Amino acid sequence: MVELSIVLPTCNRGRLLEKCISSIVSGTKAAFELIVVDGASNDTTTATLTEAGYDLGDRLKVIREEKREGFVRAANKGFRAATGRYLTWLNDDARIHPGTLDAAIEQLAHSPPDVAFVAMFHAWHSPRNVAYELHHENRTYRLCHVRGTLYANFPVGRRETFEKLGFFDERFFVAGADPDLSLKAWNAGMRVVPAYGTMIDHDELADLRRVDDNEKYREDNEKLFAKWELPPKNNVRNEFDPTNPCTLRGLRESALAA
Q1: What pTM, to 2 d.p., does this model score?
Q2: How many CA atoms lie within 13 A of 201 on its CB side?
Q3: What are phi and psi of 193, to 5 degrees?
Q4: Rounded distance between C-alpha atoms, residue 5 and residue 150, angstroms
Q5: Architecture of the domain defined by 4-257
Q6: Residue 159, SS3?
Q7: Block mean pLDDT (10 aa), the chain, length 258
């Protein structure tokens, strides 16, 4: 039985994809399947996936889009194809530390049903919107919040939780969908909690694909705050309170009517 399904959208990042897959294979003991959704890459991605298939066999599933439809739709295609008990996603520039996914699974397996996601710590390079942080080998790993509500950039959740929440909202293209998913969990009476002992490095590479997506990032951010009733932005101090990790006030009336 597949314990963990890992969804990995990618496009034209064959070199980074190779490093990401290598970190998963070498650093994960749990029975996993890897679902790569390829957004019509024309670089070395196909060769990278062919090589990975020699090692992973039927643990590797590849979904190829005729044209890139964006991270959000790609991830949803992977989610719907998943068969594992637990589910997560990674970016194609991510590299997990050994034992990270196993630690997250173990924590979630012993968590009460109202825990929707355990949030894995990642190498977030901005001091803004930081909820928690840990330090390891002179590097800092963080969890983020959105206007005082903890969310999971990289979560592990039960597959039925993802299904209950309807996966990603496809009104987003490349950003906004991960905090939105966590906000949907809080709004449904569930929680997001830190996944202790987890660390993810990622490059946030400023390549042509990211440049092309810049306008979409801005639009997606606007959609997020148009959808949810959250406190106003605080430019003076960090408004996250670990004793009150959710400041969400619910869906805006316009979102309810949509």
Answers
A1: 0.94
A2: 14
A3: -130, 155
A4: 23
A5: Alpha-Beta Complex (3.90)
A6: helix
A7: 95 94 97 97 94 95 94 97 97 96 98 98 89 92 96 97 97 93 98 97 69 78 94 84 96 70
